[in-house]
Amino acid sequence: MVGVHLSHQQTIFSASDVCISECVIDQHRRGNLVSSLSNLVRHMSYRLPPLLALRAFEASTRHLSFTKAGEELHLTQGAISRQIRLLESFLGQKLFVRLTRKIEMTPAGREYFRSIQQALDIISMATHRAVRDTHRVVTLDVLPTLATCWLMPRLAQFTEAHRDIEVRLISSIDPVNLHSEKVDVAIRVGKVPGQRYDRRAPRIDLDMTENWKDVYVEPLFPDILVPVVSPHLMDAVGAINAPADLLQYRLINTASRRHAWPDWLALHGLRVPDDANPLDFGHFFITLQAVKDGKGVALVPKAVLENYEGRDELVVPPLGEVTSAGAYHLLMREGAQEDGAVRSLCDWLAGEASRLRCEMDQPTVVAADVPA
């Protein structure tokens, strides 16, 4: 049903090209209006365009680009163009004007968009309600090392408690695109627009997303950096009792924290030596392995270290902790938090994050705690 309009004296029912007008309703029959229309609908034959054509039109209208609409719907530009032509043929009027490098909407296109947008929203919400209590697949995009060290050892607890929800886990450090249909929830680390951070704090060299429009955010835990080193390397090079002692070691950088060492040292009145020859790795799980192998000293998130399986083979020198200019967050499309399956997963993640915050409040293993 495209639309129902009720006035004081008449009822007009529109379903594509079907219109019933001038149906005067007596006062005593008004209470039965909804059931009467429902009975009528069951005996009507709809003439509606294909849903894919409507989705192609709606996406093309928002982007004013067949190419970008195709990227959103995972179709080629040509496929989108064909769906638009199909819809125009069905309606008998042009919806877009094709120009050399862009498209523009016709007056008829703008009017049709206003008419169907609410209908598509209703279909989407009804569909979410219909599948809420059935088997659901929720796609979760997590930073690689956090997925390996923290999430994976715990995820079985969630799936065991929620057998109707399947979690599809993917990992990336790239800015997440929540406006595609590939990701329901993401865990990223960085800054949230509008929030204030200590300018002196170590920077996080990651963007959580490139498009913050209609993004819902929930905080998880802070990004606390600690230095780590192999006890065997420390025996060979020398004790670490002050920040300056770290400069006798080879520094190890990680791609998502390229500014960590310069910023951390600056907080302690130091700088990276000009003749330093740091090692660079793409992910923290590689960095941690390099530290364990005695390649140098690194700054790593405490959230990762607390759950690293080789943490007993590493030492955290007693130099204190530094919180980065950013934190770990849950990100999702605005409105997704109301979905039953997504909400269940987010509530569970929030509970696990709370436990991790408690663990991070406990003292870490320091050099003095390691047996000689």
From TrEMBL:
GO BP: DNA-templated transcription
Molecular function GO labels: DNA-binding transcription factor activity; sequence-specific DNA binding
Family annotation (Gene3D superfamilies): Periplasmic binding protein-like II (3.40.190.10), Winged helix-like DNA-binding domain superfamily/Winged helix DNA-binding domain (1.10.10.10)
Annotated Pfam families: HTH_1, LysR_substrate
Keyword Aminoacyl-tRNA synthetase: no
Source superkingdom: Bacteria
Keywords assigned by UniProt, alphabetized: DNA-binding, Transcription, Transcription regulation
Domain HTH lysR-type: 49-106
Family statement: Belongs to the LysR transcriptional regulatory family.
Protein name per Swiss-Prot or TrEMBL: Glycine cleavage system transcriptional activator
Organism classification: Bacteria, Pseudomonadati, Pseudomonadota, Betaproteobacteria, Burkholderiales
